[in-house]
Design brief:
single chain; 715 residues; alpha/beta; Chitobiase, domain 2; TIM Barrel; Alpha-d-glucuronidase, C-terminal Domain; 3 domains; 8-stranded parallel β-barrel; 6-stranded mixed sheet; 14 strands; globular; binds 4-O-methyl-alpha-D-glucopyranuronic acid
């Protein structure tokens, strides 16, 4: 009897604390742990009414009920007639009561996907109104309201208007049909192609809920290194099953198109975009896809890049290729996202410059339903990159942003790196394209040139690990991407704060301490990986750990030595007019800042300048000294983060506390590895001692060079 009672008590009281596995992400809906607030919320909310009959509205209603029941710890009823509940949600046009409660002009600013949340008085009672112009807006409004409760905000006098500034807010999955994930560090692909369409994992619904809760409205299911098989009827049936689930959450499905599909899948002799039989093949294929998925979003294409086929195989331009596909999907309302990530080993030019050189001359030549998708930086998702010079340079073409959420170059899923500051740094950068204030955010939201189409994509960090993203903190980057896609103006610390409260705890000490180290984590990672503007010095191919000595890759621009250019005379890549002149691709205002060695910020120094080891920075330190102290500071910061985390044990569940604690120990080891390997290697050129305060490596350079990782994940 006693034993049964103990077991019962364990499950009722302790199990919820121990069972945190991260699966619920930021949608945990745990009962509010602040008693007086709980009573206030409970008194304010007894019943709800969500009006409308669509599948999206049904999702909104279900989410509101589930969320409230969890958060309030009581069941919440659905009220039968308008205005009798405490929460009224629906589309303004279709609900007469909403039209009397919310003036028409309040709805204008909400557009197609936005919403208002207001506390109003109706029949002597306070009612919380969530109103939108379209169903998706109601769903987003519901999620926003639940976020207020999860983060324990006052709800007695709400007056919120929110609408996204960017239209296409997409995840890009680099998931292969065999379920491996290129640059994926959280297990295998969540798309279980073999069992689809017969078996639809409940996880697909939770994936859609998580995305909708942060405003993501599209997903590219397949790798940009594409497989034509996804376009076969067999696979389209599977795609349709996913699209059916995601549609209920306002999420459209997109696919990657392999440019050579007409040959590989269609049996044609060519994939030349100007060949009428090829054009006809794609038109037919598009029609077929729309039969399976009537709201199919369109194609994402990687062409003539890293071995992928493309229009240049037939001496055609990227515009020829993109337009041919655009014409195929246009009758169905689809779009083409054509990637600008191109560079060629055969061209002797600085890789930095190649995408700009290729695409800038094509400005204005793309169809209206083409968006050119540009990575945030000119090389490849480095811990720090200057913004891509194409932003602001193609005024007649809508450009969309491609960020990488998965941490290919940022320590995979063992390093805690909060990426919102990296995303923000790029979005807030000024291109000066139309004078001061022409930020990258304004380029991609279409407002700078008044483009009718705008977009942002994040390469997903999601896999079938129970916690979705591998590291418990990696989900913060998925979350931050979505929140910034909705509103690029949101401050990084506000996003961190929201995420921590929903994911872990509202305890003030926990929130403050955690937010502080999250906010510092990206800069600290830059310090122990690539300080002062170093870039692409990771292990070749897998990109795991440091390997600045590598010089034997298949192509020169995959080798770290191509990027750091260290020798006994100095270090850095001269991209001024005296060097590769990549800086000429930026507007004159920016170019001036970077070109002048004295004005160039330290964090971009080696991106743009080659300097002797004895060159003195404004701090008075030589480059060698600064490099050493930065690497050391990065390591010390990881140790500080560990200390802070260790003090936070009382505030959260044991499972996640310990998981993070172990991963931080791995991160500390890796930071030390980065520092030691890089400094020992660069020291062979600088021939200078480590300054005081920099720890002596406990291994030799030869040891670090001998390390091999044949099974590093993500390749
Ligand atoms: C999907 C980098 C990555 C590749 C990736 C490529 C791209 O080169 O290492 O894995 O391929 O970028 O963005 O196309």
């Amino acid at each position: 009897m006693k034993k049964t009672l103990c077991t019962l008590l364990f499950f009722v009281l302790l199990y919820p604390l121990l069972a945190e596995d991260g699966y619920r992400l930021w949608l945990r809906y745990e009962k509010i742990d602040n008693n007086s607030l709980l009573q206030t919320y409970r008194a304010a909310i007894n019943s709800i009414q969500v009006t409308g009959n669509s599948a999206v509205i049904a999702s909104a209603r279900q989410e509101l009920l589930t969320g409230l029941q969890g958060l309030l710890g009581k069941s919440v009823t659905q009220s039968p007639s308008p205005g009798t509940g405490n929460i009224l949600a629906g589309t303004w046009q279709q609900n007469a009561l909403l039209r009397t409660l919310i003036p028409a002009d309040h709805m204008k600013a909400t557009g197609k996907e936005g919403f208002v949340i207001r506390t109003v008085r109706y029949q002597q009672k306070r009612v919380i109104v969530i109103a939108a112009n379209e169903d998706a807006g109601v769903l987003y409004g519901v999620f926003n309201f639940l976020r207020l409760l999860q983060t324990q905000q006052p709800i007695s006098n709400l007056s919120i208007t929110s609408a996204p500034t960017i239209q296409l807010r997409l995840l890009n999955h680099w998931d292969n049909l065999d379920r491996t994930v290129e640059r994926g560090y959280a297990g295998f692909s969540i798309w279980d192609w073999h069992r689809l369409p017969g078996y639809t994992d409940p996880r697909y619904t939770d994936y859609a809920r998580a995305n909708a809760s942060i405003g993501i409205n599209g997903t590219v299911l397949t790798n940009v290194n594409a497989n034509a098989r996804i376009l076969s009827p067999e696979y389209l049936e599977k795609v349709a099953a996913l699209a059916h689930i995601f549609r209920r959450y306002g999420i459209k499905v997109y696919l990657t198109a392999r440019f050579s599909a007409p040959v590989e899948a269609g049996g044609l002799k060519t994939a030349d975009p100007l060949d009428p039989t090829v054009q006809a093949w794609w038109k037919e294929k598009a029609t077929e896809i729309y039969r399976y998925v009537p709201d199919f979003g369109g194609f994402l294409v990687k062409a003539n890049s890293e071995g992928q086929p493309g229009p240049q195989n037939y001496h055609r331009t990227h515009a020829d290729g993109a337009n041919m596909l655009a014409d195929a999907v246009a009758p169905h309302g689809g779009i083409v996202m054509w990637r600008a990530f191109v560079y060629s080993n055969e061209k002797p030019d600085d890789r930095f410059k190649q995408a700009y050189n290729e695409f800038k001359p094509l400005d204005g030549q793309f169809r209206k339903n083409v968006v050119v998708q540009v990575k945030n930086g000119p090389i490849d998702f480095q811990p720090r990159e200057p913004f891509h010079p194409l932003f602001g340079a193609m005024p007649a073409t809508p450009l969309m942003m491609e960020f990488q959420i998965t941490q290919e170059y940022l320590g995979f899923a063992t390093n805690l790196v909060y990426l919102a500051p990296l995303f923000k740094e790029c979005l807030d950068s000024d291109t000066y394209a139309k004078g001061k204030g022409s930020t990258v955010a304004k380029v991609i939201d279409g407002s700078l040139e008044d483009h009718p189409i705008s977009g942002i994509a994040g390469v997903a960090n999601i896999g079938n690990d129970i916690n979705w993203c591998g590291h418990p903190f990696a989900a913060a980057n998925w979350y931050a991407f979505g929140r910034l896609a909705w509103n690029p103006q949101l401050p990084s610390d506000e996003i961190a704060n929201e995420w921590i409260r929903q994911t872990f705890s509202n305890n003030a000490t926990f929130v403050q301490s955690t937010s502080r180290f999250m906010m510092a984590s990206r800069e600290n990672t830059v310090r122990y990986m690539t300080p002062l503007g170093l870039h692409h010095i990771m292990g070749n191919s897998h990109h795991y750990g440091p390997a600045p000595w590598t010089n034997k890759a298949q192509r020169a621009d995959w080798d770290p030595i191509y990027y750091h250019r260290a020798d006994s005379t100095g270090i850095g890549f001269d991209r001024t007019a005296a060097g590769s002149n990549a800086l000429a691709q930026y507007s004159p205002d920016l170019r001036r800042q970077y070109e002048n060695l004295k004005d160039c910020p330290d964090n971009y120094l080696l991106w743009f300048h080659r300097v002797p080891w004895t060159y003195r920075l404004s701090s008075g330190k030589t480059v060698w000294e600064a490099l050493c102290t930065e690497y050391q500071a990065g390591v010390s910061a990881v140790r500080d983060m560990q200390k802070t985390w260790n003090g936070l044990k009382p505030y959260i569940d044991a499972a996640r506390f310990e998981e993070v604690q172990q991963l931080m120990a791995v991160q500390e080891k890796e930071a030390v590895w980065w520092r030691n390997a890089c400094l020992l290697y660069f020291q062979t050129y600088s021939r200078m001692p480590f300054p005081a305060g920099v720890e002596q490596p406990d291994q030799t350079l030869e040891y670090y060079k001998s390390l091999r990782f044949p099974y590093a994940p993500g390749i």
